[in-house]
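Practice problem 4.
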């Protein structure tokens, strides 16, 4: 779980500090129980996963089936365009 990518205070999982973000964008997360326990109370959950059967889609408010490395850059581009 802890690869050092994100400080412990920002981790969302069963072992991490309890956290209920209002918005949760789960990029490439399959829906492991540890992660879902920590994030299922978020108001909005957007899941991006290339596996259409990934369990994360069972709790997601919105689901995008596709490769994270293709979808995220497109989303960033669209957000930047919308802010202009």
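Answer key:
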């Amino acid at each position: 779980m802890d690869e050092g990518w994100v400080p412990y205070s920002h981790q969302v999982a069963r072992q991490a500090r309890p956290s209920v973000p209002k918005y949760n964008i789960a990029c490439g997360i399959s829906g492991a129980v540890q992660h879902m326990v920590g994030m299922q109370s978020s108001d909005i959950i957007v899941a991006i996963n290339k596996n259409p059967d990934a369990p994360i889609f069972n709790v997601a408010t919105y689901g995008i089936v596709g490769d994270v490395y293709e979808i995220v850059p497109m989303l960033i581009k669209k957000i930047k365009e919308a802010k202009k």
